[in-house]
Amino acid sequence: MAGRRSHPRFAVASPWNGEMRVLRDVAIHRTQDGEFVAVSQAPAIAGERMTLHLMGGGDSVGMRVQVLDSRPVVVDGAVRHRIRLSFDGAGISASDADGPDDPPSAAEAR
Question: Is 95 helix (H, G, I), strand (E, B) or coil?
Fold first, then answer.
């Protein structure tokens, strides 16, 4: 019988392109020139490019970074993820952060 729950309701004729932005609060530590370590509740994927927004003292700066690796760690008895990031040296403005060529995700540090 057509129309039952297991029956397909629609089919996508052509795939859609899209972009997703995920904001996360992370703790940031600078390790060496061009690298940061973020401690987050969620893991990251090696090679993923994102925008890191650093906020403090009423100012905010955005930086393009790339994930070098992501490893689980235990912090105060809870599993967190240590994400090593490389900084490409380019700062971005708030208007650039919302542009169409923005990487698919963003992390936010406070």
Answer: helix
Quick one: residue 91, left, alpha or beta (phi over 0 = left, psi -120 to 50 = alpha)? beta
pTM (2 d.p.): 0.64
Share of the chain above pLDDT 70, in %: 75
For residues 37 and 33, give the distance between their C-alpha atoms in angstroms, rounded to a whole number.
12
Q: Where are the beta strands (DSSP E) in 12-95?
A: 25-32, 35-40, 49-56, 59-75, 78-92
Per the prediction, the chain carries an average pLDDT of 78
Mean per-residue pLDDT for 78-97? 75
How far apart CA 44 and CA 85 sit, in angstroms, is: 10
Residues 99 and 22: their CA atoms lie apart, in Å, by 15
Query: How is residue 13 written in tokens?
Result: 């004729």
- Every domain of the chain and the residues it spans: 25-109
